[in-house]
Design goal:
This protein is mainly alpha-helical. It has helices spanning 3-30, 52-65, 67-71, 78-111, 117-142, 154-179, 189-214, 234-237, 245-270, 277-282, 285-302, 314-339. It folds into two domains: 1-179, no CATH class; 182-350, no CATH class. 68% of the residues lie in helices and 0% in strands. α4 (78-111) packs antiparallel against α5 (117-142). It is flat and about 60 Å long. It starts with a helix and ends in an 11-residue tail after the last helix. The mean pLDDT is 89.
Length: 350
């Protein structure tokens, strides 16, 4: 196996670990764990409390610094606290593990001269994006460490989520540059432009998905196909505040339908194109994934009226699956966009 492919597969391992990290972030949100660790200790935070005194101190900080405890979790025992602490600790330590998985091979590959100048610059950008993501995560957590709100800011949650997806996309694209041969690419400017529009729409939809999560907006309308008996809520018709939960809910649903229609059109457009074996194999993935995603979204809504406090039930499992398939959909579109990046001289126009 040549050096480029070894580096490419290493990057794909990173993509997989980043996807798991986003899922762990989803668990911390669904279990209400995100505010359980009230300090940011990048090195010392690796070690959890080791005895009763340390656990009591960590619990005391949570009690003193969060409105979440004062107004929502006053009945918490140390056992409840340990449960939510574990998931936030796991989320942070998985991030630390990712940095090690990237850093140690990076040093090895430099010593063995696996990298060219362009690859090193991309890797530096990758490390900077990763560091920025950690900082954004702490800024998000700090937004919830006060007496005024029960959860972190939905705006900062959305920024944290989208920046994580940008990091995943950057790493995936970098890997594709090392793993996909030029002859596997397709020259079709019209399709490339179309998929860029689909990606833009998906980016907006994912942002609204983060708003849904941050504002706990799923269970404000646990009905389908109507939204509590209406197809266009009065709050939308009256032009109420944009971050009204029903409005967020409505926009998220409508964007899903538009995205589904857009990808059906994509499928019609690409059906006759068979210039690349790789392209032909994965061109239908977006339609499969968006269909699953829409169904998961519907079932998530229908089960959202029964949520397990600081735990996991059917709604929480469906919500996690919904988030996972969204990331798979994003990766499929990014991969197709890369394959559509052939120059006219490298590929025959269909």
């Amino acid at each position: 196996m040549n050096k480029n492919k070894i580096v490419g597969y290493w990057l794909l391992i990173g993509v997989g670990m980043l996807i798991i990290q986003v899922l762990l972030g989803g668990i911390t949100r669904l279990t209400g764990s995100g505010l359980s660790i009230t300090e940011w200790k990048p090195i010392l935070g690796t070690i959890p409390p080791l005895n009763d005194a340390e656990w009591q101190h960590a619990f005391m900080l949570y009690q003193e610094k969060t409105g979440q405890y004062k107004y929502l979790n006053q009945d918490f025992t140390i056992s409840h606290f340990k449960f939510i602490y574990f998931w936030e600790w796991m989320h942070r330590n998985w991030a630390r593990l990712i940095s090690i998985v990237f850093l140690i091979p990076f040093i090895y590959f430099i010593i063995k001269k696996y990298f060219n100048v362009k690859m090193i610059s991309n890797l530096v950008a990758l490390f900077l994006l990763g560091a920025a993501q950690g900082l954004i995560g702490w800024i998000m957590v700090k937004s919830g460490l006060n007496d005024d709100i029960l959860y972190v800011s939905h705006i900062k949650l959305a920024i944290h989520f989208i920046s994580a997806l940008v990091l995943i996309c950057f790493t995936c694209w970098f890997a594709l540059t090392l793993l996909v041969e030029n002859q596997a690419k397709v020259y079709h400017p019209g399709l490339k432009k179309y998929i860029l529009w689909i990606l833009l729409l998906l980016g907006i939809q994912l942002t609204y998905g983060a708003f849904m999560a941050g504002l706990k907006a799923a269970n404000v309308a646990p009905t389908w196909p109507s939204i509590n008996g209406a197809y266009i809520p009065d709050t939308v018709l009256n032009g109420d505040y944009i971050f009204n939960t029903i409005n967020i809910h409505f926009i998220h649903r409508m964007l899903a339908y538009i995205l589904l229609i857009g990808i059906i059109i994509w499928q019609i457009k690409v059906q006759p194109i068979r210039d690349s074996l790789l392209f032909n194999r994965i061109k239908s993935l977006p339609l499969v994934l968006v269909t699953i995603q829409v169904l998961l979204g519907i079932f998530t809504l229908l089960t959202s009226s029964v949520q397990v406090r600081n735990g996991f039930g059917l709604f929480e499992y469906l919500a996690q699956a919904h988030q996972l398939v969204a990331m798979f959909l994003l990766m499929s579109l990014i991969t197709l966009l890369y394959i559509l990046g052939a120059n006219s001289r490298d590929s025959i126009k269909p």
